[in-house]
Amino acid sequence: MTQDAPTPKSNRWTTRDVLTFVVFNLIIMAVTIVAKMIEDMVLAPQNTFFVGSWLFPLLATPFYVVMADRIGKRGVLAGSTLVFGLLYTFMGGLYCAPVAVVGALIGELVMWGKDSYHDIKRVVGGYIVYWVTFGFYGIMPYLLFRDAYMEQLGTYYDAADVAAMVAQYTELPWILLMMAMFATGTIVGGLIGSKFLKKHVRKAKIA
């Protein structure tokens, strides 16, 4: 997955960098929202765990890989993490904001170093941190206010679905499985993104 990196650039973001960041994050947002809507229509709530955990990263990572390479500057991962963390916060999950901040800090530490955003392996590794952070958006409600959250879920889902979701987001084997699926989807998506980046984006000098 390692590729020759483009010529190093200044770490100062340009207007084009900001536009690239906005456009690609909007694409990632649209792709994951549509995938989630289809998933919810097709699968029972207790089964979405086994699909979304690898499908969402698989769909989003190719776009992130291209965005990270085209901008190639510090803050891409932290910015993406914070943008989506704030989105989930405004949707009612106030606990998502501090989780996003921690994820953004850890992600940028993982990406620390010269030209890290042009190194596909580093980019994919950093994006795994993003998806682990995403996983904690689902875990935190059970840790902070489990009984109230279960009661809220009970108004939308039957008892079997609620029991399954509680297990999936509170029991360590299920949590580790979720993180492994996040990592797998991100790695496969990174392979797809790196091939597209090498064959099309860098040659055409687009984005």
UniProtKB/TrEMBL annotation:
Record keywords, A-Z: Membrane, Transmembrane, Transmembrane helix
InterPro entries assigned to the protein according to its UniProt record, in alphabetical order: CHP02185_IM (IPR011733)
Any matching Pfam family: Trep_Strep
Superkingdom per UniProt: Bacteria
Keyword Transmembrane: yes
Transmembrane segments: 18-35, 47-67, 87-112, 124-145, 174-197
NCBIfam families attached to this UniProt entry: Trep_Strep (TIGR02185)
Record's protein name: Uncharacterized protein
Organism: Gordonibacter pamelaeae
